[in-house]
Amino acid sequence: MSFEPKQKVELDPPKDDAISLDYLSKCDGSHPDYPTYVAIKGTVFDVTGNKAYGPEGSYKVFAGKDASRALAQSSLKTEECRPEWEDLSDDHKKVLNDWYTFFSKRYNIKGKVEGASNM
């Protein structure tokens, strides 16, 4: 996986706002009045405008939730889209860290999921 975007993305400074699970769940790409968010390891990324995370997108399963476990396992299963990742194998943790790096170079960080354990 290449971490650097093909074209440099100008990102805003990361925000440290607390984002509730209730608000995050509304940011699933299906509500026009809300942005589209994906959380990884408790950090919330704004993926608004990327159709892959929209209602018809191939990655819509990740939108509006902390999808750490699914990303670590390269899974598109809804039941795997949850924040628990600490019990995964080292290989899966490396994949998850790679996804975190990938997202952090492309999408603005909007805050942290309330009550999320960090790294």
Automatic annotation (TrEMBL):
Superkingdom to which the source organism belongs: Eukaryota
Q: Which SUPFAM superfamilies match?
A: Cytochrome b5-like heme/steroid binding domain (SSF55856)
> Which intervals hold domain Cytochrome b5 heme-binding?
19-114
SMART domains reported in the protein's UniProt record: Cyt-b5
* Molecular-function GO terms, alphabetical: heme binding
Q: Name one GO cellular component term.
A: membrane
PANTHER family linked = BINDING PROTEIN, PUTATIVE (AFU_ORTHOLOGUE AFUA_4G06240)-RELATED (PTHR10281:SF115), MEMBRANE-ASSOCIATED PROGESTERONE RECEPTOR COMPONENT-RELATED (PTHR10281)
What's the family? Belongs to the cytochrome b5 family. MAPR subfamily.
The protein depicted here goes by the name: Cytochrome b5 heme-binding domain-containing protein
Q: Which organism is it from?
A: Friedmanniomyces endolithicus
